Amino acid sequence: MSAQPIPRSQNAVAAALPLAQRMEFYCELGGATPETIGHVLTNWWLLVQVAGDPQTARTAAAVKARTAPGRPVSTVVRELRERGR
After folding, report:
1. What Rg value do the Cα atoms of the chain yield, rounded?
2. Which residue in 60, 45, 58, 59 sits closest to 5, CA to CA?
3. Which of 19, 22, 66, 76 has the most other CB atoms within 10 Å of its CB?
């Protein structure tokens, strides 16, 4: 993860988000119930934690550039179908 973990608080998460996502965060948080508010905050906190991880950024760039190691999903799905799964 990033060198400085982001506290799991509404203000810290909001501050770590770009403006457009911050508004989406506040809208989702505002529509949350007492039963779901913790889930909403945790989901957004995880998003900013992962987004702040340099390795995640490198992996995402490699996927976009089609240089990431691995196999295409279509190949895996085809192989699973051939095995009857």
Report:
1. 18
2. 45
3. 22
**Token reading at 16:** 């770590």
| Tokens standing for residue 83 | 């095995």
The tokens for 22 are 């911050």
Which DSSP state fits 18?
-
How is residue 50 written in tokens?
């992962």
Residue 36: DSSP 8-state: T
Global pTM exceeds 0.90: no
39, 42, 48, 53: CA torsion to nearest 10: -130
pLDDT 10s digits, 46-70: 889 887 788 887 887 887 888 888 8
Residue 30 vs residues 1, 22, 24, 40, 78: alpha-carbon distances, Å:
28, 12, 10, 10, 43
